[in-house]
Design goal:
6-stranded parallel beta sheet; two-stranded antiparallel ribbon; Rossmann fold; 342 residues; 12% strand; alpha/beta; 2 domains; 14 helices; Dehydroquinate synthase-like, alpha domain; 48% helix
Length: 342
């Protein structure tokens, strides 16, 4: 799959086994945004110590701003870990105009390939700034030091092309698309899905080819979405269920897994080949059942029944199948039947 072009924000990609070792010696004065587990795995292989380590506990904009005020003089911000750590690093890179290096230690979300930082403002998601990793470091050994389900979770933000593209096509058919419609973008998104389906065995095995497939698919998604200045083919109703649940339960989730739950339910609301996409999620090993995320049946039921009003209350959310659908008790009971709860 071709993934480098002028239309990706990844300036340089280093990918392979052990490619993160010694990176600190290249960076001058640097600070790190990370969490305890990934930092403990990588810190002895950095080659040189950072000026400061930010222990990321939040992606609330004000929290990040407070951390920024405490930073010493530095040249480079290095994001090490999952989506939260990478988003904090991207925000700081953009805000302070510093070089960004991204070293994901799990592939559960596409934050390491997207230019904007996904931060929270009063619990609402906002995408702010532009930051380009130079380099993006994909170290297979480092990624495999994490539980493999955290890498498999990376397909959640790729499988969401299935439901999000449907939402955009539906919005366009109703004259409600917020952007000029692009069938070419839809078709190229489908090629990414086909690429993932073709590599689904490698992804489940968490081998080098599987890890590379997820990364290449993410970067290819950039080449489609950055030129049209939105991610409509990848973010839709399946993400909106995640946003509602996050606000309702006031806790974070493994991103790809909660998106998988959204795909399961919203593909059924769309009547959009739900059995096929569920089969693909199962074959990949993606974990999406509520019991794995400690989501109670009653919480998910209330979230679904409130989803339409939630979407209406948020001015910035795109038009999707949710806006035109009746999600009632009968639909909820029917579609929660095969999901697993504790």
């Amino acid at each position: 799959m071709q993934y480098f072009s002028l239309n990706t924000n990844v300036k340089q990609l280093r990918i392979g086994r052990g490619v993160s070792k010694g990176i600190g010696k290249e960076l001058g004065k640097y600070v790190v945004a990370t969490m305890e587990i990934p930092w403990n795995i990588i810190k002895n292989d950095m080659g040189k110590s950072p000026e400061k380590v930010i222990n990321v506990t939040s992606v609330e904009k004000q929290w990040i701003e407070d951390q920024t005020k405490e930073l010493p003089e530095f040249d480079t911000i290095v994001g090490i870990g999952g989506g939260m750590a990478i988003d904090v690093a991207k925000y700081i890179s953009w805000k302070l105009n510093k070089k960004l290096v991204s070293i994901p230690t799990i592939l559960s979300v596409d934050a390491f390939t997207t230019p904007a930082a996904g931060v929270r403002v009063n619990h609402d998601v906002e995408y702010l700034g532009i930051a380009s990793p130079d380099p993006l470091i994909i170290d297979y050994d480092l990624l495999r030091s994490a539980p493999k389900e955290l890498n498999i979770a990376g397909v959640g933000d790729l499988f969401s092309i299935h439901t999000a593209s449907f939402d955009w096509q539906y919005a366009n058919s109703r004259g409600k698309s917020e952007y000029p419609y692009s069938q070419n973008a839809i078709d190229n998104g489908k090629k990414i899905l086909d690429f993932i389906y073709d590599n689904i065995g490698n992804i489940k095995e968490n081998n080098d080819n599987g890890l590379r497939s997820i990364v290449e698919a993410y970067i290819s998604l950039n080449t489609i979405c950055l030129p049209i200045d939105h991610f409509r083919i990848e973010e839709g109703s399946e993400h909106y269920l995640f946003y509602e649940l996050e606000e309702r339960l006031k806790r974070p989730f493994i991103h790809g897994n909660i998106i998988g739950l959204g795909i399961y339910l919203l593909s059924r609301l769309q009547k959009n080949d739900p059995l096929f996409i569920t089969e693909m999620m199962d074959e990949s090993g993606l974990i999406y059942h509520p019991n794995s995320m400690n989501i109670k049946r009653e919480d998910l039921r209330e979230s679904l029944l409130s989803l339409k009003n939630y979407v209406k209350s948020k001015d910035k959310l795109w038009f999707t199948i949710i806006d035109d659908s009746m999600i009632d008790e009968e639909w909820v009971n029917e579609n929660l039947t095969d999901l697993k709860f504790k």
